[in-house]
C-alpha cells in the first residue's frame, strides 16, 4: 500500500481521536506507584472522575477494557443463579448479556428490534409483575454504540421507583460518558460502567465502576467468585491514593489531562457540542435520502449516528471505498446489522471542520460506491452548523459577523 498523506480520519465510535495534550501526558516517565507523587495523582484523578460521572460516590478504575468493567459490575453484586432484567437494544447489550450468562446469572432478555432503546414502561411492567423480587438488577446500555440509540436512564429509574422494586440499576455508559449528559448520582444509578477510549479521548486500557452505597452494601453478600475485580480492597487502597496492584500509571496521567480538558470546556458545553454535531450529521443523512437506524427522535445518540444502506447495497464495501480513497475509518455494522449499516462517530475531541471533512468523505464515498443518494447532505450540515448558534446551543459561539468584512467604499 502506498503512503496515505494527511491525517487519518478515525470516525469510528471509539476508540476516538486522542488530543495532543493527552498524548504528551501519556508519554511521561512512569513513576513509583507506591510513592507520594503517585498518591497525589491518584487522589486528584479519582475526585475528578466523580465530577465526570456526576456523583459523590466512589469511582473505581481498573486496568481493563470496558468488558472487564462489565464483569466487575456483575461479580461484585450478584451470586450464581440470581436473575437480572436486560434489554436487547443491540450488539453491546447482547455481549453484556453473554458475560452474565457465562458467569451463571439467569438473564431475562427482553427482545428488541435494534432501532429503539429500553422502554421505561416495560421496565415498570416487568418489575411490578415480579412480586417475589427475583430480579436482583436491571441492566441497561445507556448509549448503544451498535445502533446509535440512547436509552432514557432517568425515566428508567423513575419507572423502577414507581414499581417500588429493590433491584439495583446497572448502566453501561461506555460510549456516553463525557459525551452525553449522564448523572450517576441524581439518577440513582447503582453501578455505572465506563471505559477510557471513547468520550474520555484516551487510548484503550481503563475500565470504570461508579458504585452507589446500596451497591456496595449488596456486594458484601454477593457470592460470585472474584479476585482481581474485588471492589472493597480497591476502595480501601484508593482512600490513601493507592491501588491493590500495579495501576496503569501512564493512562492515569492521561486521565488527569482528559478531566482537565473536559472541565476547561465545561461538561454541559461538551454535551451541547455533541448534540449539535450529531444534529448536523442527521441533517446530512436526511438530505442524502438515507434512513437513520434509530427510529425514535427522543433516543437519537449524540455520540454516533448509524446509517442504513438502501436494500441490496453493502455497507462494508462502501466503507472500504471511503478508507481506500479518503483515508477515513467509519464504524461497521455489528451483529444483526452487519453490512447493513455504517456508523459515523462524532464524539470526543471533535469540531465543526472535522465533521465537515467526515461528511464530505461519506458523501463522496456514497457517490463513488454507486449508492443512490441525493447530493446536498454536506451543504445541509454546514448550513446547520453556521446557524446552530441560534438553535439552542448553550455555549456562546461567535455569531454572524454582519458585514464586518465589507471594505469601506
Ligand atoms: C465499546 C463498548 C463496549 C466494549 O468495550 P471494550 O473496551 O471493547 O471491552 C461495551 N459497551 C459499549 C456500549 C461500548 O460502546
Q: Which CATH class of the largest domain? A: Alpha Beta
Helix and strand run? EHHEHEHEHEEEHEEEHHHHEEHEEHH
The CATH architecture term of the largest domain is 3-Layer(aba) Sandwich
- Measured between the Cα atoms of the first and last residue, the distance is 55 Å
Q: Given the structure, what is the number of helices?
A: 13
Q: Roughly how much helix do the residues carry, as a percent range?
A: 40-55%
Average pLDDT rating: 96
Helix/strand class = alpha/beta
Q: What is the molecular shape?
A: globular
Spell out which ligands are present.
Answer: pyridoxal-5'-phosphate
What is the topology, as strand order, of the major beta sheet? Answer: 2-10-9-8-5-3-4
Report the major sheet: 7 strands, mixed
* Whole-angstrom Rg: 22 Å
Strand content: 15-25%
Query: pLDDT below 50 for ≥5 consecutive residues: which ranges?
Result: none
How many domains make up the coordinates? 2
Please report the total strand number as a whole number: 14
What is the CATH homology-level superfamily of the largest domain?
Answer: Type I PLP-dependent aspartate aminotransferase-like (Major domain)
Output the CATH topology of the largest domain.
Answer: Aspartate Aminotransferase, domain 2
Amino acid at each position: 500500500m502506498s503512503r496515505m498523506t494527511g491525517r487519518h480520519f478515525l470516525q469510528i465510535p471509539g476508540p476516538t481521536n486522542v488530543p495532543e495534550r493527552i498524548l504528551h501526558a501519556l508519554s511521561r516517565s512512569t513513576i513509583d506507584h507506591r510513592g507520594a507523587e503517585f498518591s497525589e495523582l491518584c487522589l486528584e484523578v479519582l475526585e475528578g472522575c466523580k465530577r465526570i460521572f456526576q456523583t459523590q460516590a466512589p469511582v473505581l478504575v481498573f486496568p481493563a477494557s470496558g468488558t472487564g468493567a462489565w464483569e466487575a459490575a456483575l461479580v461484585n453484586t450478584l451470586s450464581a443463579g440470581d436473575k437480572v432484567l436486560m434489554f436487547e437494544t443491540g450488539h453491546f447489550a447482547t455481549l453484556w448479556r453473554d458475560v452474565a450468562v457465562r458467569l451463571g446469572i439467569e438473564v431475562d432478555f427482553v427482545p428488541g428490534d435494534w432501532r429503539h432503546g429500553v422502554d421505561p414502561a416495560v421496565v415498570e411492567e416487568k418489575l411490578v409483575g415480579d412480586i417475589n423480587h427475583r430480579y436482583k438488577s436491571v441492566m441497561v446500555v445507556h448509549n448503544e454504540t451498535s445502533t446509535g440509540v440512547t436509552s432514557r436512564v432517568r425515566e428508567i429509574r423513575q419507572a423502577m421507583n414507581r414499581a417500588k422494586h429493590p433491584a439495583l440499576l446497572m448502566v453501561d455508559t461506555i460510549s456516553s460518558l463525557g459525551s452525553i449528559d449522564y448523572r450517576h448520582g441524581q439518577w440513582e444509578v447503582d453501578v455505572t460502567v465506563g471505559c477510557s477510549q471513547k468520550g474520555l479521548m484516551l487510548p484503550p486500557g481503563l475500565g470504570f465502576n461508579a458504585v452507589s452505597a446500596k451497591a456496595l452494601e449488596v456486594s458484601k453478600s454477593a457470592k460470585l467468585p472474584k479476585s482481581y475485580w474485588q471492589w472493597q480492597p480497591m476502595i480501601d487502597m484508593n482512600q490513601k491514593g493507592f491501588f491493590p496492584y500495579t495501576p496503569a500509571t501512564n493512562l492515569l496521567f492521561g486521565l488527569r489531562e482528559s478531566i482537565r480538558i473536559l472541565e476547561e470546556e465545561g461538561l454541559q458545553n461538551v454535551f451541547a457540542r455533541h448534540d449539535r454535531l450529531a444534529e448536523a450529521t442527521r441533517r446530512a443523512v436526511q438530505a442524502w435520502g438515507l434512513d437513520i437506524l434509530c427510529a425514535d427522535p427522543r433516543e437519537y445518540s449524540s455520540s454516533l449516528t448509524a446509517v442504513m444502506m438502501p436494500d441490496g447495497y453493502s455497507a462494508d464495501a462502501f466503507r472500504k471505498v471511503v478508507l481506500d480513497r479518503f483515508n477515513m475509518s467509519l464504524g461497521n455494522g455489528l451483529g444483526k446489522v452487519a453490512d447493513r449499516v455504517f456508523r459515523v462517530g462524532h464524539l470526543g475531541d471533535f469540531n465543526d471542520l472535522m465533521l465537515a471533512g467526515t461528511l464530505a468523505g461519506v458523501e463522496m464515498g456514497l457517490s463513488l460506491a454507486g449508492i443512490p443518494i441525493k447530493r446536498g447532505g454536506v451543504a445541509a450540515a454546514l448550513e446547520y452548523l453556521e446557524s446552530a448558534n441560534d438553535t439552542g446551543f448553550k455555549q456562546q459561539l461567535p455569531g454572524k459577523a454582519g458585514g464586518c468584512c465589507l471594505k469601506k467604499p
